[in-house]
Amino acid sequence: MPAAAPGERRVLTIPNAFSAARLACVPIFVALLVQPDRRDWFPAAVLLGALGATDWVDGFLARRLGQVSTVGKVLDPAADRLLLVTAAVGTVALGAVPVVVAAVALAREAVVAGGFLYVAAAGGRRMDVHLVGKAGAFGLMCALPLFLAGHSAVGWHPAAEILGWVFAVPALVLAWASVTIYVPAARRALAESRSPEGSPT
Questions:
Q1: Which parts of the chain span the membrane according to its record (predicted)?
Q2: What is the pTM of this model?
């Protein structure tokens, strides 16, 4: 596999700092979620929504500032997946998100994460996250805080739950559609790693 360019070996970059800051907000979200009597569920929904809405910022900064790095290519999707899994598990455990939505979302995350790990363990090149998958994750990161707000004490909670479904259904369709893109990409990555010259076979 080709070696990473010198600039891509950087760790301390603005995009990576932003991804790390988003990761640092995960325990704050959990702390808000477990407060008694749902008193902080709406602030938790706002925080989760803000984290989901800033999903694109990491990659934008990396490209805009010329700070694309190998660490960032791993840290950005890792932050997205940790946020999504934490939100799905936490909110479904408290009854704020329909079990079917969480189950379908988590099953997809398990399939994709397992596939990425298999390709890496088999010596395949690192696979990039596809736009369709990012769109699905973004939609779910909009749906989950809306479901959470729908079970909070805010006056417009019925509308929030309806909007949650509006985002959740197409997001789940896109998320699973991306699997059909990742499967041939994984095969190409493995084929390239097995080629004597490291080129596609």
A1: 12-34, 82-107, 135-156, 162-185
A2: 0.69
